[in-house]
Amino acid sequence: MTGAGDEHADAAADIAAVEQANTAYYEAVERGDLDALTAAWLPDEELTVSCVHPGWPVLSGRREVLRSYALIMANTEYIQFFLTDVGVSMTADTALVTCTENILSGGPAEEGASLGPLVGQLVVATNVFRRTPDGWKLWSHHGSPVLAETGEEEDEDPTS
């Protein structure tokens, strides 16, 4: 017989494992490590994976999703994610992670420069994970850009 304390400990361990899987996904993208990124996603024999990058259509199927990351990595010289507002909720073998991706990225450097221009971007993301015998694997990633208002319009005097 297991007590409520055991269930709470199991839930806390599951949440920690999901948080680690989520971090490993972002770290693989930062390193440009396609092998680690491939390992982060559900295998083909599981459910069909899906991905929505900001401004992209829905990508379905492991091959199409991983191809998109290969293209992004090939065309991104530098990328770093600072995750904020991370929340995890779960039921049985499915976990939902929501977060804000504070992204700093740069393209190829101009001739004679060591780094290309850096660009900051805010994206809200939802990552869905499934429990597998090999740990928590990404089932779906959906990122949407945050269209922040600058506040300049509010500061202007309409009578001038």
UniProtKB/TrEMBL annotation:
Q: Which Pfam families match?
A: SnoaL_3
Q: Which InterPro entries match?
A: NTF2-like_dom_sf (IPR032710), SnoaL-like (IPR037401)
- Could you tell me which residue ranges the SnoaL-like domain spans? 18-146
Name recorded for this polypeptide:
Nuclear transport factor 2 family protein
Species of provenance: Streptomyces drozdowiczii
